[in-house]
Design brief:
This protein has one domain. Helices cover 68% and strands 0% of the residues. It is built from 4 helices and no strands. α1 crosses α2.
Length: 76
């Protein structure tokens, strides 16, 4: 068995394992289902610097103050 074939078999196994874990985590009936969900969340989470959906305005808590929001809603 060559190294390339072994790598392919290993990636195929990991793919099947991830699909099985996703199926288990979607059920949410037993402790194993919850553990699979937690493991998938940790494995698939992006680091904050690579997440293109992050908004610096929200991350820095630079929101509207109540007066500014009231003026905006009144159209001023």
């Amino acid at each position: 068995m060559s190294g390339n074939s072994r790598g392919f078999m290993q990636s195929e196994f990991m793919g099947k394992l991830m699909v099985a874990m996703a199926a288990r985590s979607s059920r949410n009936r037993s402790l194993l289902d919850r553990l699979c969900r937690r493991a998938l969340n940790r494995l698939t989470a992006l680091p904050p610097e690579e997440d293109f959906m992050r908004d610096p305005l929200i991350d820095n808590d630079e929101g509207f103050d109540p007066e500014e929001l009231d003026r905006y809603q009144r159209g001023e």
